[in-house]
Amino acid sequence: MSRRSLLGLIVLAAVLAVTPFLVPNSYYLDIVIRMAINAVIVLSLNLLVGYAGQISLGHAGFVGIGAYASAVLPTHFGWHPLPALAAGALAAGVLALLVARPILRLKGHYLAMATLGLGIIINIVIRNEAAWTGGPDGMPVPSMGLFGFDLMSDRQWYWVVAAVLLLGVWGALNLIDSPFGRALRGLHGSEIASQVVGIDVPRFKTTIFVLSAVVASIMGSILAHYVGFVTPDVANFFHSIELVTMVVVGGMASVFGSVLGAVLLTALPQALATFEGWEIVVFGAILMLCMIFLPRGLVPTLAARLRLEN
After folding, report:
1. Per-residue CA distances from 151 to 100, 163, 251 (Å)
2. What gap in Å lies between CA 28 and CA 229, rounded to an integer?
3. Most buried residue, 105, 136, 186, 250, by most Cβ within 10 Å?
4. Per residue in 52-108, pLDDT tens?
5. What's the rounded Cα separation, in Å, for the pair 187 and 123?
6. Where are the transmembrane segments (predicted)?
7. C-beta separation of 193 from 186 below 8 A
8. CB neighbours (10 Å) of residue 160?
């Protein structure tokens, strides 16, 4: 890990440590918790999209698998939440492994359409299996138990998701500085050149796709337990697009950009609620301006400009 990355990790840890003492009430703490959950999901997606160059428009499907595993298994089969979370992550990983080879052979918009189709299939299954999932109305999720007590208060959940976010950022920073991360950046630049230097391109693409799916599933389970209720919207197409937008706005191939993108786009709809029906228009205009003036995303563009000024 570079000195700059270590400094960024320390700053993030400091911000996470003081945030719960600065937010004025539970409403804002709830938004901060959702920011942290989204940040980990976006971080995993950025490893796939930003570093490996493999677009995914169905990532919310893996979030849905984790969320519904944590709802269905404890409710219908009496599982403890932690094994249910692990089972959801395993199911997402196995599904990603099974579809990775055929899907990741595709490129460009063909790959985008294939991943979109995968996400839509997962969403349709969740909606249609109403006897198990509650159908379009969703279903309640039991509380999460850790070390003999249930996580109930927002403050308890904050420290859990803050620790997960910090661990996720630390892991991603080490991953991208490892030989594996360098291989990912290589195949993003040119798959043919990567094959020439001996990189097993299909294996690396499959591995990062499975890893990204597993992390998304785990965070889907955490989100479901935190909210206490889950609906098929967690796995729909619009949620997938929202996640990709967070990657793009924060910065492709940027760990801290993933965090910033998730923070901004989780908070922005709440901030625009006062526009009474025009919030979607304003939201779209803000995104459009970001893409015009910050085409590489917020963090990479600002970092490049600061380097030029220095």
Report:
1. 35, 14, 33
2. 19
3. 250
4. 888 889 999 999 999 999 999 999 998 999 999 999 999 999 999 999 888 888 887
5. 31
6. 27-48, 55-73, 79-98, 110-126, 157-176, 208-231, 243-268, 280-299
7. yes
8. 17
136-192: per-residue pLDDT in tens?
999 999 988 776 677 778 899 999 999 999 999 999 999 998 999 989 888 887 888
Output DSSP code: residue 190.
-
Q: What is the C-alpha to C-alpha distance for residues 114 and 18, in angstroms, rounded to an integer?
A: 42
SS3 track for 9-71: HHHHHHHHHHHHHHCCCHHHHHHHHHHHHHHHHHHHHHHHHHHCCCCCCCHHHHHHHHHHHHH
Determine the Cα–Cα distance for residues 60 and 109; give it in Å rounded to an integer. 18
Q: Tell me, what amino acid is at 2?
A: S
Integer Cα distance of 12 and 90 in angstroms = 30
Q: Which two tokens stand for residue 273?
A: 């609620």
Alpha carbons 182 and 188: distance in angstroms, whole number: 10
First to last CA, the chain: 23
